[in-house]
Amino acid sequence: MKNFIKNRKNAVVTFLTGLALVLVSCSLDTVTPDPDKLPSVPLSRAGWEVIDYSSQEDQGGEGDTGRCADILDGNPDTFWHSCWNGCTPVPPHFITVDMQTEQEAKGFFLMQRQSLSRNIETCEIQISSDNSNWESLGVFTLEKVKNQQDLAFESPKTFRYFKFIVKTVFDGTDNAALAELVPYTN
Ligand SMILES: [Ca+2]
């Protein structure tokens, strides 16, 4: 009889504990996530295309890299470089990318060329839905570091095309380079 009461008591405790867990998990499920507190996620760049640019180093000066598309490949060791082998373009340099569809972004992640040579000091980002009318999101000041840098917008933006414009470079020459650039959302 004693054991029966004890077993019943244990069963009640187990039931109540289970009920409490269900209630807690139900109440957690109903919490609305705050988008500002979610981790930022880079957009997938599959199918994206460089549709215009001022110049790129495709004359062998940087070997297999140096092309505009190298800022979209996810590899920090490949980079775009303004043309320098037999050419002398001056800033502003620019690269225009077509994301193929309109997407919402809250900013850009950027990585300087990892050798820290020809790093960009100031840049402007413009966005467009039709590759004709452009909105400037302002001029961003970068750091001369290897780490990923966050170029956050004041508010989320929806666009299909973006234009990255190099205004000035840290070493004071006309040459610029960039390893990675990707809009992010969450
Ligand atoms: Ca790259």
UniProtKB/TrEMBL annotation:
Gene3D superfamilies: Galactose-binding domain-like (2.60.120.260). Residues 38-186 form the F5/8 type C domain. It comes from the Bacteria. SUPFAM superfamilies: Galactose-binding domain-like. PROSITE patterns: FA58C_3, PROKAR_LIPOPROTEIN. Residues 1-25 form the signal peptide. This is Discoidin domain-containing protein. It comes from Aestuariibaculum marinum. InterPro entries: FA58C, Galactose-bd-like_sf. It holds the Pfam family F5_F8_type_C. Keywords: Signal.
